Amino acid sequence: MCLPPLLSLKAFEAAARHLSFTAAGSELHLTQGAISRHIKLLETYLKAKLFIRYIRRVELTEIGQEYFLSVQNALLDIERATISARRDSRRRITLDVLPTLNSLWVMPRLASFTEAHPNIELRLVSSISPVDFRTHEVDVAIRVGRFPGNKYPKRHPRIELEMVGSWKDVTAQYLFPDVLVPVISRKLLEQGRPIETPADLLSYRLIHTASRRYAWGDWLANHGLRVPARSDQLDFGHFFMAIRGAKDCKGVAIVPRIFFEIFPHDPDLVCPLPGEIESAGAYYLLTRESQSDDPSIRLLVEWILAEAEHIAGRPPVPA
């Protein structure tokens, strides 16, 4: 079995989540130097660089970004399995969430659910793949996409993701609209051209997200514009990475407004223009219809819906 040291994995996961060796050390009760040594050990083991180190900050490499998601899920699995082994009487539920919603919304709030319901063991996984409720691996999921039977205007930004493999026995409850907005660092905005119209965005480097490759093109097309043929545009794997890139002054990102609203408050990150056009799809909470009477699943569904109500409709921070 090819496994790196567990403590190094924990140090990497914490540092990647905080994008800070100091914060990771504080969480794990280790020094910043110890975190750095563990990550260097892991990089040596993997023969790959996980972080780009600057004077006062770090950021994940492309390999680091992908490794972070895998390690985070693996550590959660170990934690849930350990709890399960210690408390066999607990009801186990698997919640499958999109990576950015998982990192920015579900995980920071998870303690409130587990504390309120100690007899429910919640296993959290992260994926953008269609959910297959025909297996018993997932009980509840959050996905974004087109709802069967709904009609969407052609001009609405596309969502290529499929929510489920089959809609048989699936119940969907609406959570959030998908409205794309540009986000940029206030510091970068002060250094560059003022953004008063969508055309002004094109003077900045655009940050794209792999899972929604048409986001910029469709949003700009709604304003009579096209993505410029610039060689310095950036691509990130997930929206939370694109938001981080914008925060770090790498350019302007286009993201669902809901992600900007739930991003940890930072007065430097602003939305220079409002979003008005909903995408051809939305965010839904998915469950099995045949499990609608399950008390534990009903508690989780009610909790998610209540949390969603707290943030729905909050306006982005203006520039």
Explain the overall architecture.
The structure is a single chain. The protein is an alpha/beta fold and 319 residues long. Helices cover 39% and strands 21% of the residues. It is built from ten helices and eleven strands. Strands 3, 4, 5, 6, 7, 8, 9, 10 and 11 form a nine-stranded mixed sheet that branches. A two-stranded antiparallel ribbon has the order 1-2. Helix 1 packs across helix 2 (21-28), helix 1 packs across helix 3 (32-46) and helix 1 (6-18) crosses helix 4. Residues 313-319 have low confidence and may be disordered.
List keywords for this structure.
single chain, 319 residues, alpha/beta, two-stranded antiparallel sheet, 10 helices, disordered C terminus
Number of DSSP helices? Answer: 10
Q: Biggest sheet, open or closed, and with what strands and sense?
A: 9 strands, mixed
What is the alpha-carbon Rg in Å? 20 Å
Q: Tell me roughly what share of residues is in helical segments.
A: 25-40%
Number of strands: 11
Mean pLDDT, rounded to whole units? 88
Low confidence ranges: 313-319
> What is the SS-derived class?
alpha/beta
Shape: globular
Instruction: Please give the alpha-carbon distance between the first and last residues.
Output: 51 Å
H/E element sequence: HHHEEHEHEEEHEHEHEHEEH
